[in-house]
Amino acid sequence: MAKVGMKDIAAEAGVSIATVSHAFRNPDRVSDGTRRKVLAAARRVGYTPNRLGASLRTARSGNIVVIIPDVADSHNARLIVGIERIAHEKGYSVLLGNTRGSAAREREFAAMARSRQADGIILMSHRLPFDAAGADELPPLVNGCEFTGHEGIPCVAIDDRAAGADATRHLLALGHREIAVITGDMASTSSRKRLEGFRAAVAEAGLAVGDDRIVFADYTTESGAEATRELLLHRDRPTAIFCFSDEIAIGCMHALRGQGFAVPRDMSVIGIDDIEFARYANPPLTTVAQPTEEIGARCARILFDIMDGERPGQWVHILPHELVVRESTAPPPEP
Amino acid sequence: MAKVGMKDIAAEAGVSIATVSHAFRNPDRVSDGTRRKVLAAARRVGYTPNRLGASLRTARSGNIVVIIPDVADSHNARLIVGIERIAHEKGYSVLLGNTRGSAAREREFAAMARSRQADGIILMSHRLPFDAAGADELPPLVNGCEFTGHEGIPCVAIDDRAAGADATRHLLALGHREIAVITGDMASTSSRKRLEGFRAAVAEAGLAVGDDRIVFADYTTESGAEATRELLLHRDRPTAIFCFSDEIAIGCMHALRGQGFAVPRDMSVIGIDDIEFARYANPPLTTVAQPTEEIGARCARILFDIMDGERPGQWVHILPHELVVRESTAPPPEP
DNA sequence: TTGTAAGCGTTATCAG
DNA sequence: CTGATAACGCTTACAA
User: Fold this and answer.
1) What pLDDT shows up at residue B132?
2) Burial of A291 (0-12, 13-18, 19+ CB in 10 A)
3) Contact B225, B253 (CB under 8 A)
């Protein structure tokens, strides 16, 4: 029982190979009897369609590729779950493009569209992985979370600027005046927007931030811990730390404990994302929640719309974020 | 610049299409000059090979599919990272088969091998997703973490029984006599083996465990929290809880705090996996570390060996686990 | 309603 | 060293 193809079932059923194909794809273009005959024969010979053949012919692979820095990151993983759910509904499979932040890998995975291994791309990066940015010659593409800022490429994300401002205002309302921030890579659009929001909120409160209050991490827990230790070296310490992701925040709280600071008594910490572990942290982490899985799902839906030939009505899709106050933030300690 | 194929570059270079193909795949079977000419022409016309065509012809898709319950689970995500790394090295792409534990989805994804969308399968499940288990007619397949227990299917995992025993002995050595366990689904082979190890270690210490000391979860954090609350309902409480995953353990510690228990003063907690957040937990979680990423990588290597026609030398590959003592375990409280 | 036949883009065999 | 040419398995006008 090596390879069974449509020809085998055609022979078995005593019909032409075209009829077999029709019986599967256009069931109503074939007589009821023949269809049953074909289906039965197919079962008898143990047929499984070879999708490569179909794909070659129809020029549709049935795959989409998601280009993302790190599947092991909680937020990213959740985006993927959202994407996968919709893709599965639509009968598509998802190819994993784990880039570890490498631009080269981003291009490599993006090339899968050109080479017909994928019909569309969901891009979780701030840069476009194409040499020629001829926007009209791009494959179906949607940009998630990280604006590339290219007109003509749909993007779905939260309003990062507002999210940054909201988190900051929460701290401000609590009475904090010395707020530090641990950002992600500044190449990241969302990091920059969050920082804008932070600055705006601080300015709005009539305060000033020294740039030594802003320290960099790369969205990982470990880097968050390191950045925190760096922050604590300064002579005048902040009373609150705004971390640009929950992973950073969890690393931050860990480092704080290591240096003998109690959260939130000695120092408040707030994150962004609302990953699952945020609520299980000790203390439970105050954060700005993103509808992560929904962002992924939305990306996928838009992508499929584009692949179906629809012209998207809008380029940027903003999903709602929400401040979730838990127990890692409190008023600053008495001086 | 619609579709450029080898025929276009053949025309441009003034050679036959066969020569073009050779220039790419068997560079030494073509004169140095022609090869350069072809390569130049290819660049000029903007050629990208269509892998569907090649795949159809060679009957190799260049993809492997990984069938896994939930990408958002930290341990699973890390397995995938390991797999992806090796696959990428080998020039393969990975298709994501997120099953949410559904046997139907497992079969669905496994079918991608039959339909030629994937050349091999990495299966993170305890059951075989095939109707006919004709072991000789199976596609290249390796089983990770969860023994299906089928002879002839390579499996890589830690020694779950020993891991379970080691964790238990750690608790025992600390002086605990009342140990509860929160297992994963008992359909899972690894859960069963860990439980075996637990029972063996307890028996070895001359103790007995009532079955009301064993409670079930599904490897998620939330279920770990629930299971813990259930456990605390009993009149005689344990002094230590052995959780069969770190996610469970983190949920457990959360629930414990919620009920006013301090870890490890009032109750010790130990997990399995050593996910990243284990060390960032408060208190840092004592756990039995799995070489998770390496397990994934090993699965992939074995799979590629099989796909290369090698007959695996052994069916079960045990990777070393290691007890990592952090701060969530301590001697039981004085009575 | 069913069959014939022409590809889809690539690889591989076999002559020149 | 190079070039016809026949597959690979399927879809799809078009014809019968």
Assistant:
1) 61
2) middle
3) no
CB A129 within 8 A of CB A112: no
A293-317 tens-digit pLDDT: 999 999 999 999 999 998 888 899 9
Q: What's the CATH fold of domain A6-49?
A: 434 Repressor (Amino-terminal Domain) (1.10.260)
Q: Does residue B140 have a cis peptide bond before it, meaning omega lies within 30 degrees of 0?
A: no
**Is the pLDDT reported for residue A135 higher than 90?**
no
Rounded to a whole number, what is the distance in Å from the CA of A322 to chain B's nearest CA? Answer: 21
Q: Which nucleotide is nearest to B38 (CA to C1')?
A: D2
The crossing angle, in degrees rounded to 10, of helices A74-89 and A246-258 is: 160
B93 and A257 in contact by Cβ < 8 A? no
Span B231-277, pLDDT tens digits:
999 878 999 999 999 999 999 999 999 999 999 999 999 999 999 99
* A205 CA → C8 C1’, Å: 64
What residue has token string 């890998």?
A: A105
Looking up tokens 């082979």, which residue turns up?
Answer: B189
Q: Which distant-in-sequence residues (6+ apart) come within 8 Å of B43 by Cβ?
A: none
Q: Does the pLDDT value for residue A323 go beyond 80?
A: yes
Same fold, B6-49 and B160-289: no
How distant is C1' of D16 from CA of A192, in Å?
Answer: 68
Q: Are B110 and B95 in contact (CB under 8 A)?
A: no
Alpha carbon distance A280, A284 (integer Å) = 6
Residue A244: both structure tokens together? 């640009």
CA A277 to chain centre: 17
**How many CB atoms neighbour CB A125 within 10 A?**
23
Among the partner-chain residues A71, A98, A280, the one whose CB lies closest to the CB of B254 is A280
- The CA distance from B205 to A173, in Å, is 57
Cα B237 from chain centroid (whole Å): 34
pLDDT (mean) for B93-114: 96
- Cβ B112–A93 below 8 Å, yes or no? yes
Domain boundaries, chain B: 6-49, 61-158+292-319, 160-289
Reading the block at residue A252, the tokens are: 């931050």
pLDDT in tens, A64-88: 999 999 999 999 999 999 999 999 9
How far from chain centre, in Å, is Cα A76?
5
Q: Is A271 helix (H, G, I), strand (E, B) or coil?
A: strand
Burial class (CB in 10 A: 0-12, 13-18, 19+), A132: exposed
Residue A283's closest CA among B287, B330, B258? B258
Query: Nearest CA to CA, how far is B276 from chain A (Å)?
Result: 8
Pick B96's closest partner by Cβ from A52, A74, A96: A96
Find the largest Cα–Cα distance for chain A. Answer: 91
Identify the CATH class of A61-158+292-319.
alpha beta
Contact A167, A270 (CB under 8 A): yes
Q: Tell the burial category of B4 from Cβ atoms under 10 Å away from its Cβ (0-12, 13-18, 19+).
A: middle
In CATH terms, the superfamily for domain A160-289 is: Response regulator (3.40.50.2300)
Nearest to A116 among B51, B254, B279 (CB): B51
- Name the helix (H) or strand (E) containing A297: helix A292-307
CA dihedral sign of residues A154, A158, A162, A165: negative
Q: Tell me if B125 sits within 8 A of B146, measured CB to CB.
A: yes
